[in-house]
Specification:
Blueprint: H1 47-64, E1 71-76, H2 78-90, E2 96-100, H3 103-115, E3 121-125, E4 142-146, E5 148-149, E6 154-155, E7 170-173, E8 190-194, E9 205-210, H4 212-220, E10 234-235, E11 238-239, H5 254-270, H6 272-292, E12 297-299, E13 311-316, H7 319-322, H8 326-342, E14 359-362, H9 369-387
Parallel strand pairs: 2-3, 2-4, 4-7, 7-8
Antiparallel strand pairs: 1-9, 5-6, 8-9, 10-11, 12-13, 13-14
Length: 388
């Protein structure tokens, strides 16, 4: 850390000001030198190219503790592409329950009801900061949900609400939970995530995990709508096995693949999934302790058991702020973010555009606790600036 240059402000700066919730901070020790072995100028279907892609799949599954009979693929268009690939390919065989408590969950509602136009759909929604009643989910219906709401800072506490003897499939958007929270694989038939979240790698590539039950659905059910090439996972009624061995549907960035392999190496070196979870939990505690002694700010998620340890969403509760109308609250929160960006203290920490006004601080494993500790006095300073 280095001393601040501006008089009257905190004297310690974060070494790394990257607190964006996506793309997220690069892992400690990251350097362009890490990418020197990238398979560039070669076909991704060449032996070296396919070997890199297969390595990314295998090491990911191992790091996450994925069951050996699950299938994992690299797919286009980040987590969004992975989720939509699952929705277009698997839905329609049963009734559907959708849980939505933030913007991305609401997006899946739109896809199912307005794009696929499915009729037997039940939507369980709640406001930002709380979960809908998980007990409403029918085990014999397919269920779509977000494990960790990146724009609300709310996560499901566990998988106990998912029936072991379910008839439907569980389709889980796990993009800011994977690598930071325990995922009960026996309860997840489909899980999607991306490289640019918890491991801080590059964007545009998604990952799609399928259980044997999901594979059985793919091989026994054909949706009634046309299937775009980018979404196809079967050929002749059978799973395209090559897709889950590194033969991607479209051309991936091999530079991004190398960057992801670098992130995996860092994660493995520090102790794997338990270490990643511990770092995120410790970062959440740093913020929680500060919120507990700070009068003007609180968590958007009031209940501790459902608070995210990656995308930490805060609301400003000072009466001078809550007295403002919505536009005034949004402006004030953005002023805090702008002040800290101008000082090169924190980048991109204002709340998501559809979320309530406030702050959103990424606390995933690639963020150093010392940087969060250094950030907090600057938040106090910025609040004082806009209040005065």
């Amino acid at each position: 850390m280095v001393a601040a240059a501006t008089k009257g402000v905190p004297n310690i700066r974060p070494m790394n000001p990257h607190f964006s919730s996506g793309p997220c901070a690069k892992h400690p020790g990251w350097s362009l030198e890490n990418l020197q072995n990238a398979c560039l100028g070669r076909s991704h279907r060449s032996k070296p190219g396919k070997a890199k892609l297969a390595e990314a799949i295998t090491r990911t599954a191992t790091l996450l503790g994925m069951p050996g009979d699950y299938r994992l693929a690299i797919v286009p268009a980040s987590d969004t592409g992975a989720v939509e690939m699952a929705l277009w390919s698997l839905l329609g065989a049963r009734g559907i329950d959708i849980l939505a408590w933030e913007s991305f969950g609401s997006g899946w509602v739109n896809d199912v009801m307005k794009q696929l136009k499915l009729k037997d759909v039940r939507v369980f929604e709640s406001d930002y900061g709380v979960l809908p009643d998980l007990a409403q989910v029918d085990k014999d219906r397919d269920v779509i949900f977000t494990w960790n709401g990146t724009t609300s800072g709310v996560r499901v506490p566990d998988g106990k609400w998912i029936a072991a003897d379910r008839g439907g499939l569980t389709i889980c958007d796990a993009t800011s939970a994977a690598f930071a929270q325990e995922l009960p694989w026996d309860k997840l038939d489909v899980a999607t995530f991306s490289w640019q979240k918890v491991l801080g790698s590059e964007a545009a590539h998604g990952m799609l995990a399928l259980s044997p039950r999901a594979v059985e659905r793919l091989e026994s059910y054909t949706p009634p709508w046309p299937m775009p090439k980018l979404f196809r996972m079967t050929s002749g009624g059978k799973l395209m096995q090559d897709l889950f061995q590194g033969a991607t549907i479209n051309t991936p960035s091999m530079l991004a693949v190398e960057d992801y392999l670098s992130a995996l190496s860092w994660a493995e070196k520090i102790g794997g999934l338990p270490a990643l979870i511990a770092r995120a939990d410790a970062n959440l505690k740093i913020i929680s302790d500060w919120v507990g002694r700070t009068h003007w700010v609180d968590f958007l998620a009031a209940e501790p058991a459902i608070r995210s340890n990656t995308s930490v969403c805060l609301r400003i509760v000072d009466p001078s702020f809550t007295a403002l109308d919505g536009a005034g609250q949004t402006k004030a929160a953005k002023q805090i973010a702008s002040l800290l960006e101008a000082e090169n203290i924190a980048y991109d920490i204002d709340s998501y555009r559809d979320a309530p006004p406030g702050l959103r601080i990424w606390a995933g494993a690639t963020v150093e606790g010392a940087d969060l500790t250094a950030l907090l006095p600057w938040l106090e300073w910025a609040w004082g600036q806009i209040k005065n």
